Amino acid sequence: MGIEPAVQRAVKPALVKAGRLCKRYVQRAPFSRKKFIVDALVDVDFEIVPGCVTAVVGESGSGKSTLAACLVMLEKPDAGEIWFEGREISRLGHRELAQLRSKIQLVFQDSAGALNPRFSAAEIISEPLMIQRQDSGNQLRTRACELMEEVGLCADWADRHPLEFSGGQRQRLAIARAIALNPSFLILDESLSGLDLSTQAQILNLLLDLQASRGLTYLLISHDLGLVGQFADFVAVMHQGRIVEHGPRQQVLGNPQHEHTRNLLGSVQTLASNFYAAQAGSR
Amino acid sequence: MQRKRKLVSAVIFLCSLHLAILLAGFVAPTDPTAQNRDFPFAPPTRIHFVDAQGHFHLRPFVYESASSPDGLYQYHDLHEHEYPVHLFVRGSEYKFAGLLTCQVHLFGVDAPAQIFLAGTDTYGRDQFSRILYGGQMSVAAGVLATGISLLLGLVVGCIAGYYGSWIDESVMRLAELFLVLPWLYLLLAVRTFLPLHITPAATFFLLIAVIGTIGWARPARLIRGVVLSARSRKYVAASRGFGASDFHILRRHVLPHTYGLLLTQAVLLAPQYIIAEVTLSFFGLGAGEPMPSWGSLLANLQHYNVMVSYWWMFAPALALVLVSFGYLAVANVFHEQLQSGSI
Amino acid sequence: MMRYLERRLVHSVLLLVGVSLSCFLLTGLAPGSFFDEMKLNPQISPGTVAALRSEYGLDQPLPWRYGRWMKSVLRGEWGYSFAYNSPVKNLLVVRACNTLLLTSLAMIVAWLLAVPLGVWIANRSGRWQDRVSMAGTSLLFAVPELVLALGLLYLVVRTHVLPAGGMTSAEFERLGLWAKIRDLAAHLVVPTTVLVLGSLPILIRHVRGSMIEVLQAPFVQAARAHGIGRTRLLFRYALPAAANPLISLFGLSVAGLLSGSLLVEVITGWPGLGPLLLEASMSRDFYLVTGVVMASTFFMVIGSLLADVMLVVVDPRVWTD
Q1: Domain containing B288 — which CATH number?
Q2: Which of A247-256, B301-310, B311-320 has the highest mean pLDDT?
């Protein structure tokens, strides 16, 4: 893929825009005056281009997951705004949020923890449909089977429980659940970590197929730079709650401006980073 | 497996005790309030298989009893006629489940003989029947109070564990208050502040309410713990991401974790509450006459002469111990199962 | 460390205040009073009843009554008993001491028995001694204290070995000091035994459980590998490590013991707080009931604080708060 289509895509208005987001966590031990303050997000500004894959990288504790939580409206930022499709969503009430939830979905890292082990695959996938009251009864099951087929799982396994699936299959299940409500924006929070390389490749292919067939926009949160180099169109680097660098992939990975980005890249072996940079340049 | 057999036998034991108590009217040979002024403090009727002539009877029988002239409350058997024990006899009327009137009793003997399996009290009332009916009172009170405690504990524990922060803090402080106080003192104190002269039915429900309400703290704390850990699971966050209401999340994802806990708590609390009711009745603060309760039956033993001379008046204690033991046996098996992780 | 104890002290005081408030709140809800019995008596006019009520301040609003009670507490009287016509304190002191004597003795004996037994059983975990003991304690646990008390009393009454109740014999006053102590001890046997038997199952179980857990810890295995003798190992190495949850249990078991002692005191006629509470309860003597409940809470709190102090002394980890 050449650079031009990426630029063309960048001309469209941003799907998601975040302006000066701030989130602080305060932990107080009971009956103690000591407080632990964690600034998870500090003045975070960025945009997500529709139809593309934007990656957010950084070490643990840099605020990536908090960002994801805010975008999915599981947490409310202390300050700043979030726009989705031109609409400000960080201060919406419960009912308006409910409608919006079908458009933004999140796929967690730990598939075993993210899927309730007591329920069958079909029940898990159809839960969002049930909550949003989009279908009922038999329709739910049919929908669930369709979704399973779409992510490459055999529909006969609809009655199996999550722990009977392998790690990669569970992740497919999580993805099926996430796309059940036909979102336009999918956040993948370390969704490919903890999988072996061949499974990672398979899931990656699935995600690319889904992107093509459904016109999805992805936000990929990862600490795996190799993955980012393969998959992402745009990259943002986070460090201690701030975005220190962002831009098209080949620019950020191939020619890092910020010292921290250089540190991050430097932690991957020089040979590998050169390899990826070369790869990035050739796409 | 061995454990399964243990569980099944313990549950069967417990259920048969409850069944006997539930069907008190059927199992008891006589009306618990029927007085036999001729037979005060009669000892338990002896069941014979071999008669005075040395013949063996397949069907057990009893002899008619009569007062001895030698002392007060002394009885001897009249050996003229054997009165075999029959099953499914027609006897005094009783109400089954408060609706159906029945006359069939599990066992009995023909008049004029009487069968007092556990002797009689000062009014000549059959203790065995009174124990069964008393069991209805005590066990029902205990079980219902357990239900109340668990319900309260479930609701409060869920709210505290799910919503956290100041609600959790304040609820836990309150729970600590209840947990830390000696329960019998608390029970008596609360009982004081309630009216003394109300109908027995009202007293019964009041008793259940008081016993149940005081004990909410322990189940609430345990449930709160379970809810806290369930709440932090990722699939709860995922559900919320789909726009699930708190109620949906509680019902679908959190509540199933509490079932095991509720069951074990039920089996542990029930005997304690039964004992609480028996204690209150023993002190005379129970529902009162005419409904017997194990406590009021045992209260007879507080008279020196009764305790010394009439050992059969201890029978309600045996019933209490059997029920208590049944519950604890089941609880033990549950505990073992939990420890080995099969629940 | 001091801060931790300070916090516990403040907490305990708050607890006592909370209990007193709850009692008064319950009083406010109560649809009746001490003088209800009098009202039923046709010989006493309603006017007299009303006058008595206002004299005792029963027709005043709740906060006013609470304030007056507080003042009485600070004066050292702890309210006024209608039935006995005396300040509550006078009635409480003697009875509280008797209950304290009984419960502390029972506590000491129970723990003195439970710890060695629990350790011994834990040592033989998995073998037949363990199973038999566990079955035995289960059986004992199933027998309620009420039945234990009645049963023991029966035995004593039939065999005339010990006095069957009360605290002292009729000739107590005329006995010499040594004889007095013997008499008291004889009367103490039955109630103490019941309380000890009632607490033993739980205590033994916890000691055993705690010890088994500790015996599996690496540092104990290491000590065994060094060839340290069994007894020394159990009591000098394992037990202190297992002490932590046991001390917490100590704090909690005081409540159970007090409840048990109420029952035992009533049945055996031991003149402690138990019979006093029962009488006050039956005659709806509010301030006396409140006083007794406060006294029992006070003992609870002391027991709990004692447990906290022991915890701090025994477990150095608590210091780093």
Answers
A1: 1.10.3720.10
A2: B311-320
Q: How many CB pairs under 8 A join A and B?
A: 49
Q: Is residue B14 in some structural domain? A: no
pLDDT tens digits for range B176-226: 878 878 888 888 888 777 766 677 778 888 888 888 888 899 899 999 989
- CA distances to C16, C111, C126 from C119, in Å: 36, 12, 13
Residue carrying the six token digits 């796929």: A107
The whole domain housing A225 covers: 5-113+185-195+204-282
Q: Over 80: is that where the pLDDT of C185 sits?
A: yes
Tokens 């999915």 sit on residue? A72
In three-state secondary structure terms, A55 is strand
Peptide bond before residue B43 is cis, with ω within 30 degrees of 0: no
* C222: containing domain: 94-320
Separation of alpha carbons C297 and C269, rounded Å: 22
- Our count of domains for chain C comes to 1
What percent of chain A has pLDDT above 90? 2
pLDDT per residue as tens digits for the range A68-87? 888 888 888 888 888 888 78
- A72 has a chain B CB within 8 A of its CB: yes
Are B218 and B335 contained in the same domain? yes
Give a yes or no: residue B56 inside a domain.
yes
Last residue of a domain, one of B115, B147, B170: B115
C31 touches chain B (CB under 8 A): yes
**What range defines the domain where residue B259 resides?**
131-340
SS3 content of chain A, % helix, strand, coil (to 5): 45, 25, 30
Nearest CB neighbour to A74, from listed B235, B240, B252: B240
Confidence tier at C56 by pLDDT (50, 70, 90): low
Nearest to A101 among B237, B243, B256 (CB): B243
